[in-house]
Amino acid sequence: MRSLPNRINEDHEVSGKFYICSRMTKTLTSLLTVLLFFTSHSCGHRSGPVAYKGYVVDNNVKQMVDARVSSAKGMVLSSMDFRMYENDSLIADTYATGKSMNECMTMTSMQGDTITITGWLGMFVGFGYRIELFGDTCIVDHFAHSDAEIYKLKEKDSLEFGVDVPCKHYTLTLAEKPNFKKGQVMEGVIELKSEDYFEVANGEEKRCHIELTGYFRTDPVESIDDQLKHTGGK
Prior knowledge:
Elements: H1 16-42, E1 50-51, E2 56-57, H2 61-68, E3 70-72, E4 75-86, E5 89-93, H3 94-97, E6 101-111, E7 114-122, E8 126-134, E9 137-145, E10 151-152, E11 162-174, E12 187-194, E13 197-201, E14 204-217, H4 224-231
Parallel strand pairs: 2-11
Antiparallel strand pairs: 1-2, 3-4, 4-5, 4-6, 4-14, 6-7, 7-8, 8-9, 9-11, 10-13, 11-12, 12-14, 13-14
């Protein structure tokens, strides 16, 4: 993520005791910096957000998730807000209406060193986001799918039932850092803006993109093999 390196301008024209004082000050400053570094990284609980390459860890986001995620009959229901555009015209905006989509599904799996979190709205026709976490970074994209071949990523592509769309930008905030072990529950907020993609329906082609905010809590993370055992798969 972003970093702001500290830049120190040195005056090379000092001499005598001022030079000695300067050297001592720099030494003390360096020692203090190292001490603060190890102190901050040895604490088990952090009061503020910690930025990694692809996401931010901030335990305070848990409060937002608790307010937006519910459960029904043992199933976790996530929440989503979005603005949907066709040919740069806004056609749907849950932010403005205040009517969030509160019955979104979330699916999580772990394969090797990668955790995949998928959140979506709808069944045979729908859209959502996919997060792939690995190490200190991740890949985030938007997807849309239908029961008819109406989507394509590029204007000259062939039509397909679904499309995976890269993000122009995104911000992922997690309540805790992934440990990539079975049993961890992932909670967080994803905000994204997708690149353009195309939808062709009733002979009319439309250029689309979406902005969305997803609030999610997963079931305890487990491997794909374990999930197949639960469902009787081979």
